Amino acid sequence: EVQLVESGGGLVQPGGSLRLSCAASGFTFSSYEMNWVRQAPGKGLEWVSYISSSGSTIYYADSVKGRFTISRDNAKNSLYLQMNSLRAEDTAVYYCARLYYGSGSYYFDYWGQGTLVTVSS
Amino acid sequence: DIQMTQSPSSLSASVGDRVTITCRASQSISSYLNWYQQKPGKAPKLLIYAASSLQSGVPSRFSGSGSGTDFTLTISSLQPEDFATYYCQQSYSTRNTFGQGTKLEIK
Does A103 touch chain B (CB under 8 A)? Predict the structure, then answer.
């Protein structure tokens, strides 16, 4: 069974840092591209970052570029999101999601349960 | 970035109704369009991928259509468990973007 389990969320002051983790199991993690998606309270889904299966290709949303760093450790079946210079508007539930390629298209077929990040003084 | 616009933002309907949600992309995305369902406090769930392909385990009352810039999600006969928020997503670009969501409520 495919499982994605996020951890590392919590309360942090503006300007602070936090590192999120996503532990993957039930599939060959090193073969899949991964993403982070967030959802502010009462708001819609916002894509945050993408990383290729090897980690060699990375993309960020403009809203987090220069502050967040995505990485992965294929030996540990884990995905990470290092978040620095946090702002109130980064408050959200953060999901990790597996990117799947099928029928000539790409989609997020599995999602974690999410971890809440609250940025407040 | 490609912008995705859903309509309506909210919708009231009754059990048994046929419901259609639309999604428009700011540029052509071929069939790189996915639909997700999200219930309160839960992660999104994939319903439709590649504009019209039904994800395994999803009831056949859900269907998708469209290509290029205009897409629709149709629920043929609403069931109580279908009341949720629905999001479209373009995967034409690696910098995926989502629509703002459509909240489907019970009338």
Answer: yes
